[in-house]
Amino acid sequence: MAQGQPLVTPPTGSSTTAVPIATVAAPGRRGIQPRSALNTLLFVGPALILVIVFVLYPTIRTIYQSFFTQNGIGYNAPLKFVGFDNYTYMPQDSGIVTAVVNNILWLVIVTPVTVVLGVIFAVLFDRVRYEAVAKSIVFIPMAISATASGVIWRLMYWPDVHIGTVDAILAHIIPRFQPIAFLGESSFVNYALMFAQVWASLGFAVVVLSAALKNIPKDLTEAARMDGANELQIFRRITVPLMWPTITVIATLTMIGTLKIFDIVWTMTGEGPAGASAVLATRMYVESFKNFDQGYGSAIAVVLLIAVIPVMALNIRRFRSEGAR
Amino acid sequence: MSTKAIPGGRLRAQPQERMVGHGPHWYTRAPLHIVIIVISVIWLLPTVTLLFTSVRSIQDINTSVWWTILWTPHQFTLDNYKTVLQTAGTIGMGQAFLNSVIITLPATFFPILIGAGAAYAFSWLRFPLRNTLFLTLIALQVIPLQMLLIPLLKLFTQASIDGSYLALWIAHTSFGLPFIIYILRNFMSGIPYDLMESGRIDGAGDVGIFFRIILPLTTPAIAAVAIFQFMWVWNDLLVALVFSGPTTAPMTVIMLSLVGQFGNGWQLMTSAAFISMALPLIIFFSMQRYFVTGLTAGAVKG
Description:
- The complex is a heterodimer of chains A (325) and B (302).
- Chain A is an all-alpha fold and 325 residues long.
- In chain A, 64% of the residues lie in helices and 2% in strands.
- Chain A has a domain at 98-324: MetI-like (MetI-like fold).
- Chain A contains twelve helices and two strands; from the N terminus they run αββααααααααααα.
- In chain A, strands 1-2 form a two-stranded antiparallel ribbon.
- In chain A, strand 1 and strand 2 (79-81) form a beta hairpin.
- In chain A, helix 11 crosses helix 12.
- The longest helix of chain A is centred in the middle third of the chain and has 32 residues, at 94-125.
- Chain A is globular, with a radius of gyration of 25 Å.
- Chain B folds into two domains: 3-78, no CATH class; 86-300, Orthogonal Bundle (MetI-like fold), CATH 1.10.3720.10.
- Chain B is globular and about 75 Å long.
- Residues 1-22 of chain B have low confidence and may be disordered.
């Protein structure tokens, strides 16, 4: 960024949108000299105080607390320093082991499914006149809280051919059908939850990927068609490569989301059956606010933080590299 | 993202011109339409299930599939809604709805006011450590909510505001700020420098420039961020579970208590869920463009 050049980026999308992911202007030296430092403080002070007291301090406090355990029962019991004991105990804690395995399962299944379905839906919708309607339909669940989505999918999966839609449909197709308890089988429950989550969040991926798709110059695809490329070749050689930056954004955001997944699991199964659907976020909640073990709960929160740090690093790098342009 | 990408916006290309190599007749494109219709049905089915179940009595729910109401319309009843508004959980869904409103409005207004001020300082006012502070803010966005819960609960308990609306406002405001500042700063950076300069020449101070030049020009971004923050707070479960009290609980907490209380009280759970969805759905259908931008913009939040 050239110094003394006041305008770095044009007013991006000034007519309609804030474009957060795509265009990030780096902070530069430009700006206006405030009339007084007091004015600056007036603008930036309240935000800084709130963030320091209610975000930064708790974060540090949680890290600190993860090295302690309670001497006694209850939330106000005195704390005792235990070093890394909270962390070294985790591999022996079957609840945490299950949660970590489940989180990894969520990560490696939900991320590619979201990306692949997102791209496919965006490309399919792009080819029809009622694209806007189709996208709206897929986006509607974004307006629904994960708690309400949880209620909806508990109902969908309910093992009664009169109540649960899935079993009701299966009962119409299969003779002498016995209702399946999708949320009651430990081998099945995680996939059932993941499907509900994909339903709830795919609209976002479709809308963002569809925007990326529209940004691909039509000349490119037309030229490829002239040269005799078929639709599949165009998709693989032009569409996907040009959408790749957006695809990585969606993948990153989905990964963060699945690492921190809580509401939908807590509403639909409450970790059940027998803890089979526990994830780190539900474990953290149970240890902290049901078992009142704040040291251990804090340690689980720190593990979550460590899991998302690589993603944070990616975000900052993206911010920096785009600012350097 | 351009407006073209947004549902409700105009379509850009006519299908014919994009489908070179395929016949113009509808039947060659039939598989495409069938796939999209199947997708649409799958995506609508859960919400439709909820809506139809919520307007039937528990006897009907237990004895016949929800779609039977299509040919037995006399099953339709709003009694579930009446019941759930008054008696659901400890306080009834009516009070819970009010609580959600009381929690959400200030928890949307204040972070945006405070965040817009900070974004202005970060984008236009020169001050020491500006970039360092801003980068720290970006980094803070990724901190999981779980990292804040225990110390905040202790702080609020010491200040005797645990379980109050104030505790929820503070939590949501502070937690929303890094993201709001990030988005608004990026947007404000795009405002031409000449405008500030001419504002200065006209004798506007720092505050004047903020209210007369920056804020009016930032309206679209503020609308998008406001919708995002509104949806975040309205749909939040975790913060409310930890910090709300028996009388201040929003709808998500009451819904969860219904799930725990009646494993199969479907007439209550479904109507409660639909009440909680009503307002966001109204916003979605009336302000679709801002809604979509807000939520997609919000995706970066931790």
